[in-house]
Amino acid sequence: MKQLRSLLLVVLSLGALTAAVAWQAPQDRLPVLKSGPCWWKGNLHTHSFWSDGDDFPEMIADWYKQHGYDFLTLSDHNVLSEGQRWIDVIGPKSSRAVALKKYLARFGPTWVEQRTTGGKQQVRLKPLSEFRSLLEEPGRFLLIQGEEITSKYAKYPVHLNAINLRDVIGPLSGDSVAAAVRANLRSVQEQQKKTGRPMVAFLNHPNFGWGVKAEDMLAEELRFFEVFNGHPGVKNYGDAIHPGTEKIWDIILALRLGKAGLPIVFGLGTDDAHGYHAYGVGKVNPGRGWIMVRASHLTAEALMTAMHSGDFYASTGVTLDQVRRQDDQILLKIRPEKGVSYKTQFVATLKGTPLESATRKDEKGQPVDVTRIYNPEVGKVMAESDSLEPAYRFAGNELYVRARITSTKAHPNPYQKGDVEMAWTQPLTP
User: Fold this and answer.
1) How many other CB atoms are there within 10 angstroms of residue 152's CB atom?
2) Helices (H), 330-405
3) Does the pLDDT of residue 171 top 60, yes or no?
4) How far apart are CA 411 and CA 70, in angstroms?
5) pTM for this one?
6) What is the biggest distance separating any 2 CA atoms in the chain, rounded to whole angstroms?
7) Is the domain defined by 33-83+127-424 classed in CATH 3.20.20.140?
8) Which tens digits make up the pLDDT trace of 320-366?
9) Where are the domains of the chain?
10) Helix (H) or strand (E) holding 43
C-alpha cells in the first residue's frame, strides 16, 4: 500500500510539473514589450463601405498595416462597424465590382461571403469584431473602434470623430454651431463616464463647407481638432476671407488661454480617406496625414491617455525622434532624409496681445459670417531654425508655443499640388 501511495505521489508530481510547464509555455509567445514609451503611427479618420468609402474595411485596414501604420480607426458616418449588413454589387465594371475582385484576390472566397438575393449579387460587410482577428497583431497593429458623428446646424456641417467608443452615438444639433459642437462632445463624455473607457473626441475639418468658425471652438469640452485633413474638399488653407486651419488654431489658443481661461486644444493630422482605387491630386486617398503618439504600449487605453496628455504630434511625412520639454526649453530632433532640408518655426502668441476682433467683409464691403479678423501678432513666428535639433527657450511672456516643421521633400500624393512634407507639435505653455 505504501508503495502504491508513493507511486501515485510521483505520478501526481509529474502531472503538476507538466501542467506548470504547459502553463508557462504561452508566455514565450507573448509580444516583446519595448522598454519605455515609443512612437506609434496611426490614422483616426477614414471611411469604408460601412458609409461612403469605396472599399471593404479589411482591405483598408490591410493597406494601412502594409504601409507601416501601427493603429487605425475606421470612422464611418453615424455608424459603428457592427451588426449584419450586405451590400449590392451592380454591374461587372462598377466600383463595387472592382473592389470585390481585389477583395477576393487578397482574402479568398472562403473569407468573402456572397449571395444572390432578388437577382442581385451581394457581399457581406464584416463587422470589426470579426475582421480584427484577421489583421491585428499585439505590439504591431491595432484597430480601434470609432465613429464620425455627423451633424449640422442650419447649412453648416458639424462633424466630430469619437474614438474607442463602445456604442454608436446619434448626432445632435442645437441653436448654433457652437451649441452643436458642445452637445456632441458631451455625448462622448457621457459614454466615457458610463463605460469607464478612455476616449478621444475631436472636431473635424472646421473649413469643410466653412462650417465652423474659430469663435465656435471655445467650448470647455473641446480638446482636439484637425489641423490637417487629407480630403481635398475641406479647405485646410482657407481663402481670401476664411483663415486656414493653422491660423484658426492660433486664434482659438489665444482666445482660450488669454481671455477665456480654457485649456489648450491639440491638433491632429488625418486622412479622411474615402477612395482606395484611383490615386492622385484631387482624389480622397489614404497616406496624407497622421499622428505619432508616444505611449508605453500599443493599446487603445495607452494611446488615448497619451493623447490627452498632449504626447503626440501631427505629420504629413516629417518624422521627429524627439519632442521634449526640458525645464524652460522645447527640444526637438528631426529624423533626416538624404537630400532633404528642414525649417522649424516656433509659433506663439504673447501675453498682452490685443484679442479684440473686427468683422470681415466681402469685396462689396458687406459683413460675412466667418471667423473674425484678429491682431496679426496672434500666431507670430518667434524663432526659426535649420538645425536637425531645433530648440526654443521660453521667455515667459508667451501664452503658448508650438512648432511647425517644413521639409523640402515633395509629398508623394499631396492634398494639394506643390505640398511638401510637414509636421506640427502640440502647443506648450511656459
Assistant:
1) 15
2) none
3) yes
4) 21
5) 0.92
6) 109
7) yes
8) 999 999 999 999 999 999 999 999 999 999 999 999 999 999 889 99
9) 33-83+127-424
10) strand 38-43
